[in-house]
Amino acid sequence: MLRIVKHFIWIFTFVLCDLVCYTVSLSQPVFLRPLTINHQPLTIGWADSVFNSLTPNQRIGQLFMVAAYSNDKMDSLGIRRLIDSCGIGGLIFMQGTPEKQALLTNYFQSKSKVPLMISIDAEWGLDMRLKNTVQFPRQMTLGAIPPEADSLIYLMGKEIAKQCKRIGVHVNFAPVVDINNNPLNPVISMRSFGENKYSVTRKSLLYMKGMQDAGVLAVAKHFPGHGDTDSDSHKTLPIIPHSKARLDTLELFPFKKLFAEGVGGVMVAHLYIPALDAPLPSKGGGTGDTTSKIPPLGGGGALPSTLSPAIVTDLLKKEMKFEGLIFTDALNMQGVAKFYKPGEVDVKAFIAGNDVLLFAENVPKATAEIKNAIARGEITQSEIDSRCKKILLAKQWCGLNKFMPIDTANLSADLNSYRAEYLNILLAENSITLLQNKSKLIPLKNLDTLNIACVMIGAKQENKFRAMLSLYAPIKFFSLSKGSRQWERDTLQKKILGYDLVIAGIAGTHNNPDKNFGIDKESIDFLKNVSKRSKLIVDVFANPYSLSLMDSLDADAIIASFENNDCLMNLSAQIIFGGVSAKGKLPVTASKRFAAGSGLKTASPIRYKYTVPEELGMDSKKLESIDTLVLKGIKEKAFPGCEVFLAKDRKVFYYKSFGYHTYENKRPVKRDDIYDLASVTKIASTTAAMMKLTDERKIKIDDYLCYHLPELEGSNKMNISIREMMAHQAGLRDWIPFFQKTMKRGEYLPGIYSKTKSKEYPLRVANKLFITRSYTDTLWDNIIESPLSKKLE
């Protein structure tokens, strides 16, 4: 009973406050701040009619965007309460699966009076938050793409936007436009396009335009610049100690350009910036805690940038004239949460000038605090109304005025398209950076003279790098775990002593500079010893700042492949063997040896490239019928297994293994299986010839053999059709041991063979063994006279 009374009092309080605010709003004019996205001032229309239908309490509710999960953390009942009681404006979805998120989105949208604005952090695609989705490269990897290929980033932006829209997401908190010029940055680093402000700006613009051209709101972050700090705003309040002039020419540069080009949103970071807010005190605190150097917060003292009117209103809105939607960074982060309680932090963020209060921890309390601030005169109802209207205009731009539930059919297939896979290949191919290449070792040449070993450091036993290397040459593989013991390293040194070339792949790393990015000194020392005895290629699948650990490593070739993912591993292996050319340029300075802009190009490919059908203008979906046919053949025991290899213009676009070597299903068919080449050429050459002759209308596939070979008339083969023969349904013998008739008691019969080639003995049958020209007639007669299988005789 007591719980029911408390619930009634809570509802009554909100209703009463709502009525009070409504009365206040009637006496004040409503200033409707414009919203501009892609330079398109939005017309009032739907947003105006929805706005007029909302009570003041519901207008406050539109300011809040709360966290939702599509995994076990999900509190759907709690979200439903916030929709019903507070009329929240949106959700930011976190970890989970796309299928679950789609179902939850449909449910929450069905319960909301005003369609919810759904957002996500998908800087490198939905994979950043959702399982079983496409993982595009991180922005630092994209920073290595040369300018002539930057248009790929625009295409990536469009593709990410299409995937967002497919699961009902309207806002993607990307791109990161921070200029990362601090190697010790623990939170931005790989999320930045690099240290060059012009490159960061160009690539950010393309990413932003790609998304917004496809109808998803882009959000530039983290204003006014989170790149030059060695602390993490998730854990503390970082200090940016630079002057206003420095900030204006560097950190703010990409924001200015994106604002001028019509970016729809901006996210304000949790930073302390003395040059823009309160100055640092003359005497700082202890050296261990950066927050000890921050003046007392609140009042006339310092404020985190998210809560600073000087930064959000004066700089962002007035000086820089930004008219898009302003989001706070998550209000549960310790950059603000360790200083202000839930509710209090929301009011301060609103007063500072933010439109959307992201990741609010206690919406009912924050709503009450905002109403108290209105009563105290710190906030006016017209300010609430203005920002509510901006949010509704943004919803209108996102298409929420024509809201439709998400169609969940084929969702996974749509989110993992072949188009996205091909784009990922192009991005990876253009980003991998060759930093050292003594004697032009890469691409590898004269493979028949090289004895090659590969050592994977910190990687899984089976990986795409290893698999792709195996397609080009016979390689012996070894592994070395992180934190390996001395005896393990010594043992491995002995095993690889006899190899001419060692390829070392460094993977299984992380982005924490305090712990050397997960690369231990012992592994580097191991590679130094290897380089003294063999040629050495080092491929680093890690944060490029980790290259500083290799300053003293005298490797013959060093490659920066940036990330430990399948696509980059695949393409990096192809660069080593010349299936793909190296093109990338280092986006940051890792050390004096490895400066920003470093990167060697290699010439045109010298070997086959392994790619996808889309690169050749084909449709992978249509080629799935090959799988169907092969699996049907195996099921019907036409053959126990096979490999299918398709290539065009020196590009392998389909290469798969099926089934087993025999019907006992003991040994599966693998790509590295060795085949009798003669057995392959019988099929490959005949099929190509028949295709050509059929196209030229010189032959029909259902013709009888005797029509084209009159000598078969009267034989048991006269009524065999070409189709039957090519389908192995003609009953022909699989092998005729011709050589047996040329020998007697282990000796060659005279007159048939010669050890030297001549006009009479022109046909080579073995090393230093040639057969007489006339014996071809004997072979042909033996074939004609050979019996068919009893079943078809």
**Distance linking N and C termini:** 94 Å
| Mean pLDDT metric | 90
What overall form do the CA principal axes indicate? elongated
Strand order of the largest sheet: 9-8-7-6-5-4-3-10
Q: Strand content of the residues, in percent?
A: 5-15%
Report the major sheet: 8 strands, parallel
> Total number of helical segments?
26
Unreliable stretches, pLDDT < 50, 5 or more residues? 1-33, 282-292
Q: Supply Rg.
A: 34 Å
- By helix and strand content, what is the structural category? alpha/beta
In helices, the fraction of residues equals: 25-40%
- DSSP, total strands: 24
Q: Which helices and strands, and how do they pair?
A:
Elements: H1 2-26, E1 36-37, E2 40-41, H2 45-53, H3 56-61, E3 64-70, H4 76-86, E4 90-96, H5 98-111, E5 117-120, H6 139-142, H7 151-166, E6 171-172, H8 197-213, E7 217-223, H9 244-249, H10 253-260, E8 265-268, H11 309-319, E9 325-328, H12 334-337, H13 344-352, E10 357-358, H14 363-376, H15 381-397, H16 411-415, H17 418-431, E11 433-437, E12 452-457, H18 464-472, E13 475-480, H19 486-495, E14 501-506, H20 521-531, E15 535-540, E16 557-560, H21 566-577, E17 609-610, H22 620-635, E18 641-648, E19 651-659, H23 677-695, H24 705-708, H25 722-726, E20 743-744, E21 747-748, E22 753-754, E23 763-766, E24 769-771, H26 775-785
Parallel strand pairs: 3-4, 3-10, 4-5, 5-6, 6-7, 7-8, 8-9, 12-13, 12-14, 14-15, 15-16, 17-19
Antiparallel strand pairs: 1-2, 11-16, 18-19, 20-21, 22-24, 23-24
